[in-house]
Each structure stands twice: as C-alpha cells, then as structure tokens.
C-alpha cells in the first residue's frame, strides 16, 4: 500500500508541475495514464539507471560540489519523457527546475507517509 501511495504522490507531483507551470517546465497530457505511468517509469529509472550514472559521475559531482546531481535528476526525467508517451520536456533548464520541484514534493510526501505510520 505504501508503494502505491508513493507512486500516486510522484504522479501528482509530475502532473502538478506540468499543470501549475502551464506546460512551461514539463508537459503531461493527462493524469491517467500518462502521469501515473511516468511515475512508475521514474521509480524504475531511479532504481536502476541513476545509481550507475551517479557512480560514473562521482568526479564531476565532486568538482561541482554536488550540483551535478541536479543534472543527473534532469537526465532521469529526460529518460522518462523519452519512454512514456504523453510526457514531454520543454528544455534543459526547465527540466532541471521541474526535477527539483518533483524531488522536493515527493520527498515531503514520503516524509508525511513515514510520519503517519509511526
């Protein structure tokens, strides 16, 4: 049940960023199925590809004092937009901002889920 709630929070964050920015940061056609499938794909991409990319980019991340992690998050969002029909990125900086907002919202939502179950 917790996994489903986390995916719904992630899907709401994806759709919310697209809706509230008017499509300027990210474009999502509909909540169902595009945002929900994008949330699932984002979870899979973050679990499989992101650790590999993060390890390979340790020198660059170290040189940029961790800011390259934002670029890695944006790249994961690019991969999701490439895989999922109905999700489109609008530019590099916009995708970085969208990934920051999505990360913050999903982290806060996950924290609220943890606090509610304690």
Write the layout of secondary structure elements.
Layout: H1 2-20, E1 26-28, H2 31-56, H3 58-63, H4 68-83, E2 87-89, H5 92-117
Antiparallel strand pairs: 1-2
- The amount of helix comes to over 70%
Q: Please summarize the sheet with the most strands.
A: 2 strands, antiparallel
Choose one word for the global shape.
globular
Mean pLDDT over the residues: 92
The oligomeric state of the chains shown is: single chain
Structure description:
This protein has about 120 residues and is mainly α. The protein has helices at about 1-20, 30-55, 60-65, 70-85, 90-115, and strands at about 25-30, 85-90. It is globular and about 40 Å long. The protein starts with a helix and ends with a helix.
Short descriptors:
mainly alpha, 118 residues, two-stranded antiparallel ribbon, 79% helix
What is shown here, in short?
This protein has 5 helices and 2 strands.
């Amino acid at each position: 049940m917790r996994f489903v709630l986390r995916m719904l929070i992630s899907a709401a964050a994806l759709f919310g960023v697209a809706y509230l920015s008017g499509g300027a940061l990210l474009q999502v056609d509909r909540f169902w199925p595009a945002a929900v499938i994008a949330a699932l794909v984002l979870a899979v991409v973050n679990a499989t590809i992101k650790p590999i990319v993060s390890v390979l980019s340790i020198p660059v991340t170290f040189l940029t004092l961790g800011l390259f992690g934002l670029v890695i998050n944006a790249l994961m969002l690019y991969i999701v937009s490439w895989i999922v029909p109905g999700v489109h990125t609008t530019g590099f900086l916009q995708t970085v901002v969208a990934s920051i907002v999505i990360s913050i919202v999903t982290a806060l939502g996950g924290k609220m889920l943890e606090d509610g179950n304690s």
